Fold Tyrosine--tRNA ligase.
Amino acid sequence: MSLLRQLPRARPYVCQQCIRKQRTTIEGQRQKGTWGQKIMDPARAAAQWEQRANKIKNGQEKSMLTILEERGFVKDVAGGREQLDWLLTQKDIGAYVGVDPTAPSMHVGHLLPFMALFWLYLSGYPSVTLLGAGTVLIGDPSGRTTERARQADDVRTMNILNMRRQIDQLWTHVKCLGIKHRFPAEISRTRMALDNHTWLQNLSAIELMQQVGSGMRLGPMLARDSVKVRMENGEGMSFSEFSYPLFQAYDWWWMYNKHGVQLQLGGSDQYGNLCAGMDAVSYMRRTRGDQRVGAEDDIANATFGLATPLLTTASGEKFGKSAGNAVWLDKEMMNSFDLYQYFLRTADNDVERYLKLFTFLPIQHIDLVMESQRKDESKRTAQHVLAKEVVELAHGAEDAMKAEAAHKEAFSQGTHTFSLFGLRKAFEEIKKKEQPDKVDEAELKLLTYKKTYASSSTATGNSAEDSQKEASQIVTLPLPLLSQGSFPRVLHAAGLVGSKSEGQRLIAKRGAYVVLPNSGSLENPSGLKWEQIPEAISTTDPNQYLLDWRALVLRSGKSKIQICRIVTEEDFEKEGLTCPGWEDFKARRAESGEETQ
Ligand SMILES: N[C@@H](Cc1ccc(O)cc1)C(=O)O
């Protein structure tokens, strides 16, 4: 840790005032800050930019593109790497990333192009986040093998509102992180959160076809993987999906004119859309009498696309999935504690790469963190830094502090006492389920909404069990599963292990824990304590660990916690639920005519 103390730059946290401001924003009022948004005298700003360009040319400073490359953001550059490098050095061009509100929240997989955009913003490039409330009506086929299910109007409206709020919050947190990591205050910064519905709703079909359609060639559009795959797998593609790139291209043209946006960033599945947009914008500039059109190599006014890589973990899994479900940024869908735990579980082989991608820590700082990490990997120093920074980005500084404190409390020196605020929330949810009339109206709305969302994601192929997990952090188990000797079965049913025998092995190596019932209650969870599930499986009865007769709290290893709500078999069936091993259990019970062990 002593190495970390020498760190030259980051403030421990942004000042109280910033946090207060941030909270005000979260509560819905937009803040007007001054940091980095100083309306600078244009001549002074230009002189400052020129000075920086000279430093880059003389090798005294790294170029913007080099910084992005060094941190792992660049997979492909459309329009030429050298040209973009030159342009970013020469001119404070505008940049944008778009996201369609296909769900109520972004997930961590979305973060990569956004992080690259935030770096541009913090370095002084006018930056735009674009919410695709217009394009979501069409549905982007990129990277998909099937057509998206149509969203109901009310679900779509909720998604749009939620994501808009989320993007606003992200911007506020980025600003706080910029202050914390001491990005210079004395530069001009512009950020915008736009919504393409504002211009697409007024766009006529004739205008779109005439302006954008004429500039797009069928050849490259048909050659795209997303189109070819659909033709080959027999799924086919609707014309509206096929025409999606036209709308994205029109967005770019609109922002090119209004805000000087010359760079679009996106995930690698967006590469085709980025190229199509560049072609369309250059066609429109030529045909619509853009004064700026110069010679063929008019790089100063050209457009560029930057595709970020598709992330996989060191073990080859797709990044951003936890137990098969997406890791959401919305704290109602994944609380700060769980988000913290997700990043804490990052493999040692991935953590340096993720620190570069998901934090604003300078590279030298990351080197120091890694040096300290290598001295004692078991401390997971790097994973803690990563987890805290990501929660701070997604949920804000206050929640990051709480998540860190909750973790420390939960896992401090093997005493395993906890008062997890996430757990407390979950307990409250259990109580609500049992007394639905006690839930206040706003919460009820949220729960109903989550249910709608869960059932709409069932339509896209998730099992009912997945949706149940998505809707809450709690699993529901039927009481008959709990009998003397059944802990391995319960661990399996709770989703903590893949099979009963894996459960047996986990208990044998003393890696399974359960909360002691007489150490607290749902009403007062702060005193609860963990106990290792005893090795003598056959004489242990999970029923003895029921909290207030309705919940069992289990843990596998250091951090995988599962809260189980226990209901009677009748209620379980009435709610249409199932869990791993349940069907099998019932079949064996019917066969033997008695309860199965
Ligand atoms: N098509 C992008 C989102 C997007 C929408 C509109 C744009 O102008 C740009 C990007 C996606 O699905 O990820």
About this structure: The pocket of tyrosine is lined by residues 98-100, 130, 132, 135, 140, 196, 248, 251, 270, 273 (CB under 6 Å). The longest helix spans residues 153-180. The domain at 71-308 is CATH 3.40.50.620 (Rossmann fold). The chain is about 50% helix and 10% strand.
